[in-house]
């Protein structure tokens, strides 16, 4: 029996979406996720989801930024895009600062010397 025989993969037939991408070929990319039924027809009982995506340059290279847009239409999503991305970037910066604070306050245990004694 192979490892892949033990993996059970199932498609959630009640949570299907059709994905469309829109871009300005500069900085903005908006994913439109339209809920669909298993037969491919639009599922009117669920809301369309809009996701904004872009990349910002960091010292380590391009960093992807993604955020959900609280929009009902593509036009509304495009209008919300700049502010939503700014908030997502601000959140990333805060998370990075918090990570740095946590790392700076970590207790460092000195290496043990041969014989099991810890040098202080």
Structure description:
The protein has 120 residues and is an alpha+beta fold. It has one domain. Helices cover 29% and strands 29% of the residues. The chain has two helices and four strands, in the order H-E-E-E-E-H. The chain has helices at residues 3-6, 74-104; strands at residues 16-23, 29-36, 49-58, 61-69. Strands 1-2-3-4 form a four-stranded antiparallel sheet. The longest helix is centred in the last third of the chain and has 31 residues, at 74-104. The radius of gyration is 23 Å and the shape is flat. The mean pLDDT is 90.
C-alpha-based Rg, rounded: 23 Å
Can you tell me the residue ranges where pLDDT is under 50 for at least 5 consecutive residues?
A: none
Could you spell the SSE succession in H and E letters? HEEEEH
H/I helix tally: 2
Strand % is 25-35%
Strand runs, count: 4
Order of strands side by side in the largest beta sheet? 1-2-3-4
Distance between the termini: 53 Å
Mean pLDDT: 90
The tally of structural domains comes to 1
Helix content: 25-40%
Largest sheet: 4 strands, antiparallel
| Category by helix and strand content | alpha+beta
C-alpha geometry: flat
